[in-house]
Design a protein that fits this description.
The protein is of the alpha+beta class. The protein is about 35% helix and about 30% strand. The protein has a single domain (about 5-90), classed as YaeB-like fold (2-Layer Sandwich), CATH 3.30.2310. It has helices spanning about 5-15, 20-30, 85-90; strands at about 5, 40-45, 50-55, 60-65, 70-80. The protein has a five-stranded mixed sheet. A hairpin with a 4-residue loop joins strand 4 (about 60-65) and strand 5 (about 70-80).
Length: about 90
């Protein structure tokens, strides 16, 4: 079972959402510590070791470090615009 990091980022985002949607995203994030690379995960182009999974209309971007058995959630954002990728680009440069 992998360790989860970056939960403060997730919690800050979830506070702004309706409880039902927040619960769905939280469930998806917590499932990453059991299976860091689920079947619906996709590798991010241009970012080695970074992946994304979807939960409804939201995207969860995370880094998986298998040597440390660590999943670090980087961002959560809406899928329908590129804002989540713009934020990622600002964070990682």
């Amino acid at each position: 079972m992998a360790k989860l990091d970056g939960l403060a980022t997730v919690l800050d985002f979830l506070k702004k959402l309706p409880p039902k949607i927040a619960a769905q995203i939280a469930k998806k994030v917590l499932a990453l510590n059991i299976d860091p690379l689920p079947a619906d995960s996709k590798t991010l182009k241009g970012y080695s070791g970074y992946y994304r999974v979807d939960s409804g209309e939201y995207r969860i971007i995370y880094c998986f470090k298998p040597d440390e058995d660590l999943v670090e959630v980087i961002l959560v954002g809406k899928r329908n615009d590129d804002e989540v990728y713009k934020q990622l680009n600002r964070l990682l440069g």
